[in-house]
């Protein structure tokens, strides 16, 4: 079976990373860019062969059982990631100091910051329950910090000078899939914008200007076939 690695959209790249690789322990990564003049598909073939990536699930399971690391490769246009699990593998010898740990250094891609962190607190079943810490490692997809700060400054600055309709369009055009941490960031941006408009005596924006459902895409399909129907909010929070 052919190993598929070339994502056809930003949303597909992030989804594959956040839903399929990082949750399964592929925390150690190398990020790179294919230089102009090099054929991305030739680079794909070279790296897949070099690190023995294109193997079956059963082969990956056998490697894991004897302490050998598994490696995945993911590319969007000229940006690529090599991701590995714990264990022994030539990847660790060859890549050496270039390797980062997603639990310590987030993966930054197209304005997203993607990391692995311990969960905060588990959802309460009722209001009387005591808070219980969630000690599982969870994938966190956020808007990258500096970009978020820039968006905040921009929206606060223009909030009293634009119509509500114009601002609503600005929020709708933000190119981020609403993973749970992203949704919280967008709600915060909306709150800051409304606070500024309120101070100026202007009507505020309702929460309907934000998108709350994440699009589920087929990461490796042609772009016109990649998108499917949005899924309910509850499913988007599990990654």
> Which structural class do you get from the secondary structure elements?
alpha+beta
Report the major sheet: 5 strands, mixed
Multimerization status: single chain
Query: Which strand-content bin applies to the residues?
Result: 15-25%
Q: Care to count the β-strands?
A: 8
Give start-end ranges of low-pLDDT stretches: 228-239
Instruction: Kindly report how far apart the N and C termini lie.
Output: 27 Å
Overview in brief:
This protein has helices at residues 10-21, 40-50, 57-65, 90-95, 145-158, 164-172, 180-199, 223-226, 233-236; strands at 6-7, 28-33, 71-76, 79-84, 100-101, 107-109, 112-118, 137-143. It is an alpha+beta fold and 239 residues long.
Architecture blueprint of SSEs:
Elements: E1 6-7, H1 10-21, E2 28-33, H2 40-50, H3 57-65, E3 71-76, E4 79-84, H4 90-95, E5 100-101, E6 107-109, E7 112-118, E8 137-143, H5 145-158, H6 164-172, H7 180-199, H8 223-226, H9 233-236
Parallel strand pairs: 1-3
Antiparallel strand pairs: 2-4, 2-5, 3-4, 6-7, 7-8
Helix pairs in contact: 5-7
Provide a descriptive summary of the structure in words.
Helix content is 37%, strand content 16%. It is built from nine helices and eight strands. A five-stranded mixed sheet has the order 1-3-4-2-5. Strands 6-7-8 form a three-stranded antiparallel sheet. Helix 5 packs parallel to helix 7. The radius of gyration is 21 Å and the shape is globular.
